[in-house]
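Thought: the user wants the 3D structure for the chain below. I'll pass the sequence to the structure tool as-is, report back what it returns, then summarize two notable features.
Action: structure_tool
Action Input:
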Amino acid sequence: MHSVAFFNNKGGVGKTTLLCNVAAYASLHLKHKVCVIDADPQCNATQYFFNEDKLYEIYEANGFTIYDVVEPLTEGEGFVQEIKTKNARNFGVDVLPGDPKLALIEDFLAQDWGAAKSGDVRGIRTNLVFSDLLQRLNNYDFVFIDVSPSLGAINRSILLSSDYFMSPMSIDIFSLKAFENIAKWISDWTNDWNKGIANVKDVKKLPELKYGQAKFLGYVTQQYLAKKDHSGQRRGVKAYEGIRNKIDEVIASCGLDESIPGEPFEIGTVPNLFSLIPMSQSNNKPVFELLSNDGVVGAHFAKVKDAKEIFGTVTNNLLRRIDG
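Observation:
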């Protein structure tokens, strides 16, 4: 099993839309067994996957959510023993639904991070809650994790436990600054974690769980205006290309390039798909699976076909990097 966090501390970059469609393509068209963890307290992925009736079952009928995974730790009960997922049929994936209550765990994890830095085994164990979760999902080919746009304790624990992370990004100056923040944040907590492990007096008490700095796979540019050139390639209009050309330089200067030697940093690109996105969300279906009874008319059919090619390219490139 390979785990990938879709992560950018800048919000509004289309992270959830990208993750849900990549997960669907990997399952429906590449026939992989895929699980999605919604670890964003905003629960946008969960809302994308499920209609109102299913959401009611999850939140009003005692359904199992991501909060049920982490809440036992706050009660001193240890890791949860059973993980329950819910199938999102239209996307072909299993989902561990999100929960707004996950935000309540932020301070708890931050407090125990302080203990972990000093070599306290209980603090270390607490911050490996997502490592234990991923170990229990080992029957999947891929686990994709939707995270919040923050540099907080929850995301730190997720990136400590995940194999990889990739960054969806919009093409603007703030996304460039976000990469600088991400690189420094990862470097700082990695150093703290390593010092904490070195300070453990009895290493036999450490949990037998996988941990380490998640490897950077690259980025996907999104939400820009594109035209096809004479060769049929989609290219952003000039205003976007000026910023886009600076992205690789910023990533290299931050040291994130070490994880993907010999590969371009850009995994792929998703231009603005306009009305197809809300249409996809309201029908709880991947963009490339939309049909006439979902509201597709006229020129939309060509756009749906284009979307299949776009998300297919991104998914294939992403999985190829993982397979090495």
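Final Answer: Structure generated. Residues 2-323 form a domain with the Rossmann fold fold (CATH 3.40.50.300). The first strand starts at residue 2 and ends at 6.
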